[in-house]
Design brief:
The chain is mainly α and 269 residues long. 36% of the residues are buried.
Length: 269
């Protein structure tokens, strides 16, 4: 369908959505940039994450047992702290501004990921103006949420983790018919887990969908996915179960990493 096939009202409505997106995004960005420059912590967790970022490369502090001084637990997987540290050394001299800027860029990336997913999920016959307007509307919606406005520029791990998860979801939805793009989505999901270990909703949904779609061909497999024996399932439709194995294996490493900070306390102490 070409834009010429749309009615005048449909064209005006699409143009309205595009204009709203292009107006609201700079407003959101300007407000968040001002918050990035606040010289004190805006949330109880910023100081914690800032300290973790500073100590992430020190094996005596990072993910140590919590029964020795200082009594600080690393509750998150390390990718955000490593990325914030790199941003601090390469771009921003202030570590707090570096971490907040990383979160703000991730928030903008979430909007782009959602816009991409919606625009390229439209039916092939949809007019490009409809695709653009739908994507722009979907991309700007997060910026209107109170939670995103409050957390979008905090030095917290959440926005980078959500960006990686939504990027993986977008890749799987729009390009997942090709096997190699399923692996790209799986990599993004694993990176999301290494940013925050609770980013499981999108990968589980995609894996469940993949297993459901591929179920007849893979029903001849043993039904067990092992990290060391992922290729026993023959046939081109075994990708979904292989993806399960490729995500379970790094997830086990995430669990092991987090378990290093576990400490058993008793009443005798």
């Amino acid at each position: 369908m070409n834009p010429g096939d749309l009615t005048n009202f449909q064209k005006l409505f699409c143009l309205f959505l595009l204009a709203a997106a292009f107006i609201l995004t700079p407003i959101f960005l300007a407000a968040e940039v001002r918050l990035v420059r606040v010289p004190v912590q805006r949330d109880y967790g910023e100081g914690h994450v800032l300290w973790q970022t500073r100590e992430i490369l020190d094996p005596t502090q990072a993910y140590k047992r919590a029964d020795t001084l200082p009594y600080v637990v690393y509750p998150y997987t390390p990718l955000y702290m490593l990325a914030a540290r790199v941003a601090n050394h390469l771009v921003w001299s202030d570590p707090l501004i570096a971490g907040r800027s990383l979160s703000l860029l991730s928030t903008l990336g979430i909007g782009v990921a959602l816009a991409w997913t919606v625009a390229f999920s439209a039916p092939p016959r949809a007019a490009w103006l409809v695709r653009a307007a739908s994507g722009a509307f979907a991309g700007v919606l997060p910026f209107l949420m109170d939670g995103v406005q409050g957390w979008g520029s905090l030095m917290r791990v959440d926005m980078l983790a959500l960006l990686l998860m939504y990027a993986g979801l977008g890749v799987y939805i729009t390009l997942g018919e090709r096997e190699r793009w399923q692996y790209v989505a799986a990599i993004l999901f694993v990176l999301a887990l290494f940013t925050k270990q609770t980013m499981l909703s999108a990968p589980l949904a995609c894996l469940g969908f993949g297993v459901f779609v591929d179920w007849p061909p893979v029903s001849h497999c043993s039904g067990t996915v092992c990290r060391h024996d992922q290729n026993n399932c023959a046939g081109p439709h075994s990708t979904a179960l292989q993806m399960v194995g490729r995500i379970i294996a790094p997830a086990e490493d995430v669990a092991h990493l987090c378990s290093r900070s576990e400490t058993t306390f008793s009443d005798d102490r």
